[in-house]
Amino acid sequence: MANHASALKRVRQTRRRTARNRANTHRVRTAIKQLRAVVASRDKAGAHALLPATMAAIDKAIQKGVLHHRAADRYKSKLSIAVNRMA
């Protein structure tokens, strides 16, 4: 365990940041899983309703540094293609 005050502060900061990053990661991954489940169930109306919320969650993950913008672009492209195939 850390002994110096500065090291103790870094431990506290790391715990807070880890919790925040986990929450943001969980939020975006849950949104993606929900959309994929709706697409798999062939629910067109549900998929079209859920797509904008999922895209917003992905965009927020980019802003917060949870996802790289190119990885996010891949997610958005694949999900858009899956939803548009249903139409």
The count of strands amounts to 0
Number of helices: 3
Radius of gyration: 17 Å
Low-confidence stretches: none
The CATH superfamily label reads Ribosomal protein S20
CATH T-level topology: Methane Monooxygenase Hydroxylase, Chain G, domain 1
Name the average pLDDT.
Answer: 95
Distance between the termini: 57 Å
Would you write up a description of this structure?
The protein has helices at 5-40, 44-63, 69-86. It is built from three helices and no strands. The protein has one domain: Ribosomal protein S20 (Methane Monooxygenase Hydroxylase, Chain G, domain 1). 85% of the residues lie in helices and 0% in strands. The chain has 87 residues and is mainly α. The chain is elongated and about 60 Å long.
Give a brief rundown of this model.
By secondary structure, the chain is mostly helical. The chain has helices spanning 5-40, 44-63, 69-86.
Which helices and strands occur, and which strands form pairs?
Elements: H1 5-40, H2 44-63, H3 69-86
Main attributes?
87 residues; Methane Monooxygenase Hydroxylase, Chain G, domain 1; elongated
